Amino acid sequence: MRVVRHIVPDRCCGVIVDLQGFFLSQVDKRLRARIKTNTGNLVRLLGHFRIPIVVTLERPVDHKGSLPKEIGKHLGDRARTFEKDFFNLCKEKDIKHYLERLKRRQVIVAGCETDVCVLQSCLGLLSLGYEVYLMEELIFSSSRDVDAAIARMKAEGVIFLTYKSLYYELLESVEGPLNPKKGVETSFPDDLPDSAI
């Protein structure tokens, strides 16, 4: 019988890959605004469930920029930011060891670029035995055609999901989580949408 994987708040963490001004400037304003809004909502959603978040910034940060303030303002004390030189975040010892210390085997990934850092990081995470869930609306690239990268990730076992699917998988029922974690509010903030824009 095939094992069906479900996202479990106590078993997962979020990773936002290189969502920096340099990369955002390479896409049109409408997509840029959507990415910022949707990623901000993802951070808020994960924060609500007290799910740790790893943010990576590609060096040189003084040239490529930091995480946009619209997103960064939602990061809480469960978020950690790392600078990196490798496209595959797993090749950075500090990041790899931090993820190991979290003891969470499910990773929810967003960021850029789909066909470079996101691709290589997802493959790296898979090779280390993580379950990798990639947010469809929260990845982007300066390349117009990323079909080959997406096909490769799917073939290797990356699970694609939408913000809406994640939202309701974490929520579990109309009553809220069946086993709410200590310190997690049972009611969602009224202004946290259930789907991406």
Question: What does this molecule look like?
Answer:
With 197 residues, this protein is α/β, with parallel strands linked by helices. It has a single domain (9-171), classed as Rossmann fold (3-Layer(aba) Sandwich), CATH 3.40.50. 38% of the residues lie in helices and 19% in strands.
Structural class: alpha/beta
Mean pLDDT: 93
The poorly predicted ranges are none
Helix content: 25-40%
Strands in their spatial order, largest beta sheet: 3-2-1-4-5-6
Features:
Rossmann fold, 8 helices, 197 residues, single chain, 19% strand, six-stranded parallel beta sheet
Summarize the model shown.
The chain has 197 residues and is α/β, with parallel strands linked by helices. It is built from 8 helices and 6 strands; from the N terminus they run βααβααβαβαβαβα. The chain has a 6-stranded parallel β-sheet with strand order 3-2-1-4-5-6, sandwiched between helices.
Give the arrangement of secondary structure elements.
Layout: E1 12-17, H1 21-24, H2 29-48, E2 53-58, H3 61-64, H4 69-72, E3 79-84, H5 93-102, E4 106-112, H6 114-127, E5 131-140, H7 147-156, E6 159-161, H8 163-171
Helix pairs in contact: 6-7
